[in-house]
Specification:
Layout: H1 3-20, H2 28-88, H3 101-110
């Protein structure tokens, strides 16, 4: 007899006992077999639940990581745009052919850039 047949046969006996008002008795072997099946199903359900929780946790971590990287990308794009804007405005130097180093440094710093060796 298969497990399904065992369960079906036992169910039929239990239904008959219920209708007839009689007692329903099963052998110790049948009881142990049913308890083993019940325990196996419980273990499968516990494993399935743990696997599902693992999958959910993995999806949550992936979503959080994605949001973090997206925020980093937006921040980087903002910084790049600001740097491009600075580069779009050239440093204006005086109109004379000869300019002092100090005047050139002041003009570069005024434009928002740093000067090495300053």
């Amino acid at each position: 007899m298969t497990d399904t047949t065992d369960i079906s046969a036992l169910r039929e006996q239990a239904e008959t006992a219920k209708v007839c008002g009689g007692m329903f008795a099963i052998s110790g072997e049948q009881a142990l077999s049913l308890l083993d099946q019940l325990e196996a199903e419980r273990q499968r359900a516990d494993k399935a639940q743990a696997d599902m929780q693992f999958e959910c946790d993995a999806h949550i971590e992936t979503a959080e990581s994605w949001r973090e990287w997206k925020l980093r990308a937006i921040t980087a794009e903002t910084e790049i745009a600001a740097l491009k804007a600075r580069l779009a405005n050239p440093v204006v130097l005086g109109s004379s052919d000869v300019m002092s180093r100090n005047f050139a440094i002041k003009a570069i710093i005024a434009a928002g850039f740093t000067v090495k060796g300053e």
